[in-house]
Amino acid sequence: MENYRKARTVEQPWPRPFPGLPADTPEIHVKDGSKIRNLMRYALSRMEARPRMVFTATGKGVSKAITCAELVKRRVKGLHQHTELLYCGVDEVWEPLEPDAGLDSLTVSRKLPSICILLSREPLDATRPGYQAPGSFDALWAQAAREEAGGGQRPGHRRRRGGGGGGGGGRGKGGAARQTGRAREPGRGQS
Description:
By secondary structure, the chain is an alpha+beta fold. The chain has a domain at 4-14 and 24-145: Alba-like domain (Translation Initiation Factor IF3), CATH 3.30.110.20. The chain is 21% helix and 28% strand. It is built from three helices and six strands. It has helices at residues 36-49, 62-75, 138-149; strands at residues 4-11, 27-30, 52-58, 80-96, 106-120, 131-132. Strands 1, 2, 3, 4, 5 and 6 form a six-stranded mixed beta sheet that branches. β2, α1 and β3 (52-58) form a beta-alpha-beta unit. It is flat and about 85 Å long.
């Protein structure tokens, strides 16, 4: 592939994981380079006016989409969530670096992990896989906040104090001590 450069990437059309959604439902496509601050500003402004929204992401943007959905759920109470995991096709077109070399352009088809997260103020079908009721993880969040406030220690475990690690007197990982000034004890053969 050192003789090729990526010319373009074409995403194949997404399957509609949530049938029956109104056409005016906002869909936020999260990409790897998207700023969470900008996504949140847009999502919260849309959630004020509409009862539902969808976050979608592919590849490296999946974790960022999950983060955005969780942040929206913490700011807007009472949201129902339905999550769908799927694979989406992506075609990458690679062109030769030197057109006169007689190389053809290549098309590489890949399947990337993708996610669709539907957040709704209205109740969703609780029998479908991927459904989360509002407040179902509030106890988990509260426990995590308590552990964070308490330093995250487990009962019966003490936290070590001080720095430097293994008692080497701050000399790193067992390295020889550097002699500065006069020695504390006379060396061998000295009095």
